[in-house]
UniProtKB/TrEMBL annotation:
Native source organism of the sequence: Streptomyces filamentosus (Streptomyces roseosporus)
Entry EC no(s): 7.1.1.8
Name of the protein this chain belongs to: Cytochrome bc1 complex cytochrome c subunit
A Pfam family it matches: Cytochrome_CBB3
Bilayer topology term: Multi-pass membrane protein
GO molecular function: heme binding; iron ion binding; quinol-cytochrome-c reductase activity
Domain of life the protein comes from: Bacteria
Binding site for heme c 1: C60, C63, H64
Assembly mode: The cytochrome bc1 complex is composed of a cytochrome b (QcrB), the Rieske iron-sulfur protein (QcrA) and a diheme cytochrome c (QcrC) subunit.
PROSITE patterns per record: CYTC (PS51007)
Length: 269
């Protein structure tokens, strides 16, 4: 008994007990963990990457390089992540028809399954923004009023107050947000496509992105009723004030000229 008590008081006794506990825990996990499910997920991911690489070689490598390293005709895709691919290909911007100041939205040529495979391959080239889940971009229950404040602070300078879009410099433009899906709105904020700055979760948390999506849907969705009448491009008080000055002041000038002309005639007669 004295020898056993002495061993218990040994400085390394606690370390030995801890190692035995870790070994036992690891053994139990290895015995009961769903290894089959994890292995199946890894196999499915590997297949997606393999199929995505085939699609990439046919539709993307000529501009972005065989390994995504980029060329003079297209930027590097290393580290852009799956979200950027899902946005660019899912909106038809990629593959691009021709180089230009800005790549426009056009008809999508890939199925969603093929887009997922392309995204998986590009994501394997380097860590980047991950394609969001529905729970991340679904604006249900979001605060559209708060989203309006965020939109006017961060987005209206280019997309204008209601997301109608607007011209930029050197042939570039901010596209209209009408009809853009919540998923693609979220991915655009994540990745900052083309001339747009990116707003990762460290800069703009997930809830704020949802609020902005709710606002865009509220002002740029179904436009059946406009209580303000003619929207004048949705540019707000600037265009409305300009309309009043041009047409209102123009009408006053016309009336003044008419009165002066008739007054002069009356004096002559």
């Amino acid at each position: 008994m004295k020898k056993l008590s002495a061993r218990r008081r040994h400085p390394l006794a606690a370390v030995v007990v801890l190692l035995l506990a870790l070994a036992a825990t690891g053994g139990l996990y290895a015995a009961f963990a769903p290894a089959g499910t994890a292995k199946a997920d890894e196999t499915a991911q590997s297949l997606a990457i393999e199929e995505g690489k085939k699609l990439y070689s046919v539709g993307c490598a000529s501009c972005h390089g065989t390994g995504g390293q980029g060329t003079s005709d297209g930027p590097s895709l290393v580290g852009v992540g799956s979200a950027a691919v899902d946005f660019q290909v899912g909106t038809g911007r990629m593959p691009a028809q021709q180089p230009g100041a800005q790549v426009p939205k056009k008809k999508v040529i890939y199925t969603q399954a093929e887009i997922d495979q392309l995204a998986a391959y590009v994501a394997s080239l380097g860590a980047g923004a991950i394609t969001p889940t529905e729970g991340q971009y679904n604006p249900a229950g979001a605060d559209a009023a708060k989203g309006g404040e965020l939109f006017r602070t961060n987005c209206a300078q280019c997309h204008n107050f209601t997301g109608e879009g607007g011209a930029l410099t050197y042939g570039k433009y901010a596209p209209s947000l009408e009809g853009v899906s919540p998923k693609h709105l979220y991915e655009a904020m994540q990745t900052g496509p083309q001339n747009m700055p990116s707003f990762p979760d460290t800069t703009m948390p997930e809830q704020e992105k949802k609020d902005i999506i709710a606002y865009v849907q509220a002002v740029n969705g179904e436009k059946a009723d406009n209580p303000g009448g003619l929207s004048l491009g949705g540019l707000g008080p600037v265009s409305e004030g300009l309309f009043a000055w041009v047409f209102g002041l123009g009408a006053l000038i016309a009336v003044a000229i008419w009165v002066a002309a008739h007054t002069a005639k009356a004096k002559k007669s």
